[in-house]
Design goal:
DNA Primase, Chain A; DNA primase DNAg catalytic core, N-terminal domain; Dna Topoisomerase Vi A Subunit, Chain: A, domain 2; six-stranded mixed β-sheet; 26 helices; 12% strand; DNA-directed RNA polymerase; nucleotidyltransferase; primosome; DNA primase; magnesium
């Protein structure tokens, strides 16, 4: 059994380790004042950075999930390493030689006979890279070199990305690594070798061009292998299988070279293949990365958000590049679903000639690749255009069906402020009036079907800068900031008089917290309302409204509260009047006399109420 690392060596590792450098390999850190740094926590999903690092004390702590510790603990949690493996990793990085004690803590040992599993698997991959890169220069690798050359990659590019060649032999790598001291089980666990039918061990990759796949720290954890020969009956691309160190849902090719530019530029370009990453980097787009044998998913998003510092305050750019063919368009629409997981803005860049970045660089040069990224368009615009293009807009049926299919895309937009603009754009693209498009989007946002008998008109929400939204916002500010003054009048106005969904949610939270009239105000009251909110958007709005100045010079008084609440109700009542008038127009008074007169009587009552509110609000804001 291996000995224990000496305590003084562990202390020296902690002393010689810069915790900011270690964490920066995974998380983009920004100044938080007082010498501290902050970023998005890698251990839980969050929109605002609560992960704090203190370089002076060499510790980190997340106020969101409560995790914390030193650099050793960070590696243990982030890389799933044991304590000893983490110390060894940091020691190697700092150039320190560790000493070990026997289990009885007697004589020191100069070297530890067994490393942790991760170190052994990483070491096996490092040895495999040396083997494969050497093979690329042999006569048998001529086809691999031609493949690279035909795509515009010279010897320097191949060396920069560690390209290699798996030779035409069944167990050449396996024998090489066994001679280097790696065991049968280690090679199988690493995914470098596999058992043959005979029971012997053979290489996983054979007669293929290889790209080493590295993690954020630069360690090689797997390979991507491209078929070169027609008689190879395997798939076009073959990747390392899932191993203790290679998780394809987390891995992004090129991330080790792109991470610093991603953090610096606040932008990442997601491409589809290894050669596309190489082409982008060499063409002057150093933020390109690619998935490895799997679709772009939630775990990849988590990695990129931490590098982008993708928060409400610092929103980055995520640019997808896809081929213009049907498969590429399908991938782009799938990416639109992932768009909602990012805080930042998502774009798509598609070559007008349907070429991928590698083909584009080869055909038109480096500038064309940079222009491709520069000409990016919002992903929602692309998605809407793609959906609409499938229908004949010269017919009524085609326009209506296109509206029904496109409305859910607009409803999915995470930035509610953009929805009204996209409603207008969609109506213009379809050649339709804005009202039916508004209803379709509002119906989709409510989770109800946009067609069929279950689809019914619903009231549309006002934009955040509309007069109605502004007065709703002012009323909520009064309840949060001045509950003693505004409480009784505020509580008397029901949530049904609020029309913006997030405002409705905050109004409901005020009621759930006991009502404004019962509150004494201050931080405790604000926290009570925030805790009562059922979604993050409402929680964020409470924090915003709690500190936003009121729209009045001087201190608010009862008259100001009365005017605000009257204006709030007047906007709601006039909206109901419009809806009721529209309904009356659709009623046939001959066949539905009772319904017609009942609606007409309700209209007269509402108009009378509106006049009274207008007089109450006549003082102005």
């Amino acid at each position: 059994m291996a000995g224990r690392i000496r305590d003084e060596d562990i202390a020296l590792v902690r002393e010689r380790t810069s915790i900011a450098e270690i964490i920066s390999d995974t998380v983009t850190l920004k100044s938080a004042g007082g010498g501290n740094l902050k970023g998005l926590c890698p251990f839980h999903d969050e929109k605002s950075p609560s992960f704090n690092v203190s370089p002076a004390r060499n510790v980190w702590y997340c106020f969101g999930c409560g995790a914390g510790g030193d650099a050793i603990k960070f590696l243990m949690d982030a890389e799933h390493l044991s304590f000893v493996e983490s110390v060894e990793r940091l020691a190697a990085r700092a150039g320190l030689q560790l000493r070990y004690l026997e289990d009885d803590r007697s004589a020191p040992r100069p070297n530890r006979p067994q490393q942790g599993q991760r170190q052994r698997l990483v070491a096996a991959h490092a040895a495999a890279v040396e083997f494969y890169t050497a093979q690329l220069t042999t006569a048998g690798a001529r086809t691999a070199r031609e493949f690279l050359a035909e795509r515009g990659f010279d010897r320097a590019a191949a060396q920069r990305y560690g390209c290699g060649f798996a030779p035409d032999g069944w167990d050449l790598l396996t024998k090489h690594l066994r001679q280097r001291g790696f065991s049968h089980d280690e090679l199988v666990t690493a995914g470098l070798s596999r058992p043959a039918r005979s029971g012997s061990l053979i290489d996983r990759f054979r007669r293929r061009l290889l790209w080493p796949i590295r993690d954020l720290t630069g360690d090689v954890i797997g390979f991507g292998a491209r078929k070169l020969f027609a008689d190879d009956d395997g798939p076009k691309y073959l990747n390392t299988p899932e191993t203790p160190i290679y998780k394809k849902s987390h891995v992004l090719y090129g991330i080790d070279q792109a991470k610093r530019e991603i953090a610096k530029q606040g932008r990442v370009v997601v491409v589809e293949g290894y050669t596309d990453v190489m082409a982008c980097h060499l063409a002057g787009v150093p933020t390109a990365v690619a998935t490895c044998g799997t679709a772009f998913g939630a775990d990849h998003i988590g990695v990129l958000r931490r590098l982008l510092l993708d928060t409400d305050a610092v929103a980055g750019e995520i640019i997808f590049t896809f081929d213009g063919d049907a498969a590429g368009q399908k991938a782009a629409l799938r990416a639109f679903d992932d768009d909602q997981r990012f805080v930042g803005r998502t774009f798509i860049a598609v070559s007008p000639d349907n070429m991928d970045p590698c083909e584009l660089r080869l055909a038109k040069g480096d500038l064309a690749v940079r222009d491709l990224v520069a000409r990016r368009e919002p992903l929602v615009d692309f998605a809407l255009r793609h959906v609409i293009s499938r229908y004949d807009l010269d017919t009524v049926d085609g326009r209506v069906e296109a509206m029904r299919r496109a409305a859910p895309l607009v409803a999915k937009l995470k930035d509610r402020e953009k929805r009204p603009e996209y409603v207008r754009k969609l109506a213009g693209d379809l050649g339709m009036e804005i009202e039916p498009v508004q209803r379709a989007v509002a119906t989709a946002a409510s989770g109800r079907p946009t067609d069929g008998p279950a689809a019914r008109p619903v009231r549309t929400e006002p934009s955040v800068d509309s007069p109605q939204s502004m007065v709703e916002r002012e009323a909520l500010k009064l309840a949060l900031q001045e509950p003693v003054l505004a409480g009784p009048m505020f509580d008397a106005v029901e949530a049904t008089d609020y029309r913006h969904p997030v405002h409705v949610a905050v109004r409901a939270a005020v009621a759930a917290a006991g009502g404004a009239a019962s509150a004494a105000g201050g931080a405790v009251w604000i926290e009570a309302v925030r805790d009562a909110c059922e979604d993050l958007a409402a929680q964020a709005l409470v924090g915003e409204l709690a500190v936003e100045p009121l729209r009045i010079d001087g201190e608010p008084d009862p008259r100001y509260v009365s005017i605000t609440m009257a204006r709030l109700q007047w906007g709601s009542v006039t909206a109901r009047i419009r809806e009721l008038k529209s309904r009356i127009q659709r009623i046939n008074p001959v066949n539905n006399k009772d319904e017609y007169f009942a609606a007409f009587g309700e209209l007269l009552s509402l108009e009378q109420h509106a006049r009274a509110l207008r007089e109450q609000a006549a003082g102005g804001l």
